[in-house]
Structures are given as structure tokens and as C-alpha cells.
Amino acid sequence: MTSTYVNWGQAKVKLTWQETIQLPEYGLITSVHGLCFYENKLLLVNLNHRGWDIPGGHIEQGENPEQCLKREAMEEGYVEGECKLLGHVIVDHSKNSQWNECSPYPKLGYQVYYRMNIKKMHDFEGKFESVERTLIDPIRVSDYFKGWHEVLAQTLVCALKEG
Questions:
Q1: Nearest to 91 by CA among 103, 109, 65, 106
Q2: I need a surface site. Which of 42, 65, 100, 124 has the fewest CB within 10 A?
Q3: How far apart, in whole angstroms, are the C-alpha atoms of residue 94 and residue 72?
Q4: Residue 146 to residues 1, 18, 54, 55, 140: CA-CA distances in angstroms?
Q5: How far apart are CA 115 and CA 82, in angstroms?
Q6: What value, to the nearest 5°, has the Cα angle with vertex 152 and ends 150 and 153?
Q7: Distance of CA 118 to the CA centre of its chain
Q8: Beta strands in the chain (DSSP E)
């Protein structure tokens, strides 16, 4: 397992990568993300107010995690594809002094990660929260994604193994 601490607002949060073929408890999944590939290139989306990132977001009512990723990939990157569960990041707020029972996230939550093999790229319209998309060599991801860290790097390693 790979772990790191990241800044989460004014506090530090521990992130730990867990490669697995099983989803964590549904009610504790805080977001779903996808490492989406087209012809061995990684899709990045330039999100309003956040910069370059991989597609992902929060599960909407009635969705399962895979459906969430497919919706987010379409909304942010205008792509469709087949998904394979890679695992999840454990988001541990135990040492976050800003966390309390009223916080929007559980003390111990999960961000689920998939690999998507893009089968269809639609024309990019930018109607939702992204202003552009790009396909890059995966080894250059940290040149674009300013919040890139070792736990995300481990998700990429797992995604590349599945390719």
C-alpha cells in the first residue's frame, strides 16, 4: 500500500491506495475517478477553477460507481468506454483537526478508481465543468496535473498494468 498526506483546506489528510477488485461500502464512497485511455494516451480535462485533472466526481442518486464514472467522463471529457475497477483511495480524516461530525465527508471515506478504455470520442463542447480536454503520454501527467502525488501515481501504475 502507498500512503501520503495532502493538504485538504487548512488541514492534512492521509490518502492510502488499495488495489482491489471489490468496491468499498457504498455509503462511504465520496467520489469516483477514471484513468481514461485512448490509443495509449491518458485523457486529462481542464476543469473550471481547478486546472487539469482526470474525469471524476460524486455519485448521483440511483447511480452505481461505474455509472458515475461513465457520466462524468462524458460530461467532462465527451468520451465513452469500457471500465475496469482498479481499487480505491482511503481518505482518512483521523488527524484532520478541521474535521467534525458535521463535515460533509466521513472520517474514513473512499475514492473509487477505474480504468476506462475509450471507445468513442465525441466532439468536445465544454457545456459542463471542463473547458478543454487533451490526450497525453501518461508519463507526463505531473506536468499538467498540479496536485499529482505518489498515491495518484500508484493508481496510474495499476491502470497501465491493465492496458
A1: 109
A2: 100
A3: 29
A4: 23, 22, 12, 15, 12
A5: 8
A6: 60
A7: 16
A8: 2-8, 11-19, 29-38, 41-47, 51-53, 56-57, 79-92, 108-121, 130-136
Q: Which amino acid, 98?
A: Q
pLDDT value, residue 52 = 97
97, three cell numbers: 483537526
Name the burial class of residue 161, with classes exposed (0-12), middle (13-18) and buried (19+) by CB atoms within 10 angstroms of its CB: exposed
pLDDT digit string, tens, across residues 37-58:
999 999 999 999 889 999 999 9
How do residues 51-107 score in pLDDT, each as one tens digit? Answer: 999 999 999 999 999 999 999 999 999 999 999 999 999 999 999 888 989 988 999
Answer whether 0.90 is exceeded by the pTM.
yes
Burial class of 87 by CB neighbour count within 10 A (0 to 12, 13 to 18, 19+) = buried
User: 34: which 3 cell numbers?
Assistant: 477514471
Estimate to the nearest angstrom the gap between the alpha carbon of 139 and the chain centroid. Answer: 17
| Residue ranges per structural domain of the chain | 2-161
